[in-house]
Amino acid sequence: MSEAEPLLDEYFVWLIVEKGRSRATVDAYRRDLTAFLAWTAERHLGVREVAASDVDEYLVSLRDRGRAAATLARTLASLRGWYGFLADEGLVGADPTAHVRGARRGRTLPRPLDESEMVALLDSIPSTAALDRRDRALLELLYGTGCRVSEALGVRIEDLDFDEELIKVTGKGAKQRLVPMGRTLREALARYLEPAGRAALATTRASNLLLNARGTPLSRQGVDAIIARRALLVGIERRRISAHVFRHSCATHMLAHGADIRVVQELLGHSSIATTQVYTAVSVSSLQQVYRGAHPRAHG
Fold first, then answer.
1. What is the helix (H) or strand (E) element at residue 168, kind and residue range?
2. Active-site pick, 58, 143, 192, 279
3. Which end of the chain, N or C, is less surrounded by CB atoms within 10 Å?
């Protein structure tokens, strides 16, 4: 029996007895939560380890599989009810759904940061203290490769090939792929791997690239905290940014600059090009906005 099963049973009893929910409603919640817990189990995430970025990623995965906005909204409502109950009962430290925005009806598109915002955010991080170097390497990795947060946290030192300027990442289903190491990412990683960087944090022989202040592997919650703190320092609202936004921004900015969609598909590790095509709509939307503002005959 998993740790979640008795908690689920307790929650469903509470819904029926205390909240008066119908059997049909409870069954719908059960389906939503069972599917979510199966997804987290594949990623070896316990109930108490789920972060806001995981909820975001799950909802994105549902949308990418063609789920309707109404389904996404119901799923988020199920997760909010579940984690609200666990938080009220003191069974989790924090509610990971508290700052997750609900999907609007109709088609929802990724909302990347503007290129100028991304540059300002990355360039605002100094390269002096070990944690500063770690944060810069982390955010450059997320934006520079478009990798998922779970993939970034799984990168080990031996996965870095500075000679060929490649990084090996392990994605869904343990599938591995090579992603390029751009100039600013290479520089950020090199500074982080200097004696004043990662070595100053390491307290164990763990080969994980990204470490926390205690010298152990960085967690998803740690990534969320880093992003929130760094965004605040440059005036980016917390609700506008998450680890997944770096992935969205990478894909959207590359397509806006003329990258072939199949190259972006390979970079992001999408098994289907249909999943990648959602980013083209963002690029086309940006193109239309610029065209309407700049072309002398755009308004008739």
1. strand 166-170
2. 279
3. C
CATH architecture of the domain covering 4-88: Orthogonal Bundle (1.10)
Quick one: which of 263, 252, 268 has its CA closest to 171?
Answer: 268
Tokens of 262: 């199949």
- Which of these is catalytic: 148, 198, 220, 230? 148
- Which candidate in 63, 136, 247, 253 is catalytic? 247
Per the annotation, the verdict on 247 as an active-site residue is yes
Name the region of 236 (left: φ>0; alpha: ψ -120 to 50; beta: rest).
beta
For domain 115-289, give the CATH number: 1.10.443.10
The residue-averaged pLDDT of 132-152 equals 95
Exactly one of 63, 133, 244, 248 is catalytic; which is it? 244
Of the residues 172, 177, 186, 238, only one is catalytic, namely 172
Whole-model pTM? 0.62
Residues 113/131, Cβ–Cβ less than 8 Å: no
Tens of pLDDT along 35-80? 999 998 888 888 888 888 889 889 988 887 888 888 888 999 999 9
Q: Where are the domains of the chain?
A: 4-88, 115-289
Is 23 catalytic? The answer is no
Q: Is 270 a catalytic residue?
A: yes
Distinct helix (H) and strand (E) counts, the chain: 14, 3
Q: Is the dihedral of CA 159, 205, 138, 279 positive or negative?
A: positive
